[in-house]
Design goal:
single chain; alpha+beta; six-stranded mixed sheet; three-stranded antiparallel sheet; about 20% strand
């Protein structure tokens, strides 16, 4: 509904002449905190099981009461953080494994023949099952807590049953658990500035993964810009080429500098000092030596790269070796992008040092300066985010509905 309202508003603005295609637009992101408490690992495990029990107690209290152990009412009747958790690593691991065994017992009951089959489709039960895969493993029939090094990456797992899609994220010096909102607005000097696109993602999704989807979204609205101003997180040499080729967009943003130690030392030989012959597929070092191998491959993010390696003999005997590599025995190697990307990357790194480029890029500053204020007024289109907030229950309301019934039964006995 909210997204449709935004789209309708944009249509009206186009009809009024306030919004036109092929102008200038800018995009930036900011973080959105999930409406959940920050829990440590032990609290997260306990709260996952407690949330599952509460969900079952809401829909099948009699079925749960027929088999649930009495000690569970004391163990999971209140939010986990209200208890005094054990101190010491061994005691905490033992307590975590107790919770793990209780969770396994619950899952076995849920998947037993006499359990209502629809219980398996309750979202928090699915979350519990996944959380137990992440947190525990079975060793010769015994449940064991995984060590920290064996856990999935923080961006792949959720630590709260009350907002399973919230993720840990970081941007520069900020870290948070929740989401990230990407705001795109017009920024022509002679026109009103209007939000044209809003995207909400889990916090672990990087900005650069959203550049193409933002362009596709603007294309569907017939609002593609001619110039798109972004920060360094949204841009690389490949996207510069794709944006121009597919959408005729000039993507403007600072290219990340060469992060090698050679680029940081004035007398060292960084990539820019090597000549590359794309026809012969050879690189030539500052001392005139030619590379030995040229291997096209892909990096960890599936980007096409070329791995270039020099001769061990040439590098070992070179009197300038310390300016080129810190390896004791291995020769110098280079990692370069394909020709078009490499040449564009080198050109852009030089161009962004000029005053003319800085003057053009300064138009993005308004997005950075006012994004917090705009975020307050333009959260309406974030239907998915709003739904998450509405569905997030405070811990204080999560009380086992079977506790009172079980207590009454105990008194009657």
């Amino acid at each position: 509904m909210e997204q449709r309202l935004l789209d309708r508003l944009l249509e009206v603005c186009k009809q009024k002449g306030w919004l036109k295609e092929r102008g200038k637009q800018r995009t930036d992101s900011t973080h959105v905190l999930a409406a959940i408490r920050t829990l440590n690992r032990l609290e997260s495990i306990g709260e996952a099981l407690r949330a599952a029990l509460n969900a079952i107690a809401t829909v099948e209290p009699e079925w749960l009461k027929n088999w649930v152990p009495q000690e569970w009412f004391e163990r999971y009747g209140r939010p986990v953080e209200e208890y005094r958790l054990p101190k010491g690593q061994e005691a905490r691991q033992s307590y975590a494994e107790t919770i793990g065994k209780d969770g396994m017992m619950l899952l076995e009951q849920i998947w037993s023949a006499d359990a209502p089959s629809y219980l398996r489709e309750i979202p928090v039960l699915k979350y519990l099952r996944q959380a137990w895969v992440h947190q525990f493993w079975v060793d010769n029939g015994s449940l064991r807590l995984r060590s920290a090094k064996d856990l999935p990456p923080v961006g792949k797992r959720s630590d709260s049953p009350y907002d399973p899609e919230a993720r840990y994220g970081n941007k520069r010096s900020s870290t948070w658990t929740g989401y990230k909102v990407h705001l795109t607005e017009t920024c022509d000097a002679d026109a009103v500035h209007l939000i044209t696109n809003v995207v909400t993602t889990p916090a672990n999704i990087t900005d650069i993964e959203q550049t193409e989807p933002i362009h596709h979204s603007l294309q569907a609205k017939q609002l593609l810009p001619e110039v798109h101003l972004v920060d360094a997180g949204y841009i690389d040499s490949g996207l510069l080429i794709i944006s121009r080729k597919q959408h005729n967009i000039e993507l403007i943003g600072p290219m990340r500098p060469n992060g090698s130690w050679q680029a940081k030392e004035t007398e060292a030989y960084d990539l820019s000092q090597f000549r590359i012959n794309w026809n012969t597929k050879r690189a030539i070092c500052p001392q005139g030596k030619r590379s030995k191998s040229w291997t096209p491959t892909k990096d960890a993010w599936s980007n096409a790269i070329i791995y270039v390696k020099f001769s061990r003999t040439h590098c070992r005997l070179c009197e300038h070796r310390t300016q080129c590599t810190r390896c004791k025995t291995e020769p110098r190697s280079l990692t370069v992008r394909p020709k078009a990307e490499h040449q564009l990357l080198q050109t852009m790194r030089q161009e962004q040092e000029t005053s003319q480029w800085q003057l053009r890029y300064n138009q993005r500053a308004g997005n950075e300066r006012h994004r917090r204020k705009r975020t307050v007024y333009h959260f309406a289109p974030l239907a998915r985010f709003a739904a998450r907030l509405r569905s997030t229950a405070p811990f204080g309301r999560c009380v086992l509905k079977t506790q009172q019934a079980a207590g009454n039964q105990t008194r009657r006995d």
